[in-house]
């Protein structure tokens, strides 16, 4: 049970069962069915990792649960819960664990939630090819009255797992803080930056209210912090994620999911690899690195 909950918690880089429990509770506020999908996905991914004898330390830390948890909840958000959806959930969650294992062995940089994105896109293409788009659920309606700034920022936290409730966002932040208050702070800063940037870009107010420009920014800020412990670099990653979030739905006609976060993080890591001076300069500018800072898994 604890390993499965750690798998859910690793969606936001936390190897803490209590964090995973608060994440599941946050999901249940919006939809108990989606919360079940996240838990089942993590359990399936963890079970596959155990059966295939993947690294036991990684297994214990929930590394093989988080992509599978995202697949499980995403399919129940995007598709009606018919038998085909449940079959895809099982197969997709298992495949996500295997892809995560292969990525960690053969890709020389963090792949983050890329296995979830690729497996979910594949599952959607498969089900649409067989059953058409009648199986799709309706996208969430934008609020008639645009949410306030604070509510939009909190919705950005919730959208990390395809929720849009401020209450869910609060529970997610509380879960992260239970594991590491610094990471919770970075998650909040990222969503603030993404929301402010989307307002500056005059993006649709309904999308802003749903948190669609905050969640990738939140994840990107946390991911880069785990790699460099630089506030300036984390903010840069959050800023880069917003145009990518704007691009994906308009240009590709597919759900963006967490792809903008992954690509934004890769761009910043590539810049640092090409110009190490940038990393040293940004680290000095942020002046926030602490020698006693605990390390978290960069997935």
From TrEMBL:
**Transmembrane portions of the chain:** 20-51, 86-103, 112-131, 160-178, 231-248, 254-274
What are the entry keywords? Cell membrane, Membrane, Transmembrane, Transmembrane helix
Q: Where is this site: Important for channel permeability?
A: 258
Q: Which GO terms describe its cellular component?
A: plasma membrane
The record gives the membrane topology as: Multi-pass membrane protein
Task: Name where it mostly resides.
Answer: membrane
Using the record for this protein, list the coiled-coil segments as residue ranges, or answer none: none
The organism's superkingdom is given as Bacteria
Record has Transmembrane helix as a keyword: yes
Entry's localization field: Cell membrane
Family the entry assigns? Belongs to the urea transporter family.
Q: What's the name of the protein?
A: Urea transporter
Species assigned in the record: Singulisphaera acidiphila (strain ATCC BAA-1392 / DSM 18658 / VKM B-2454 / MOB10)
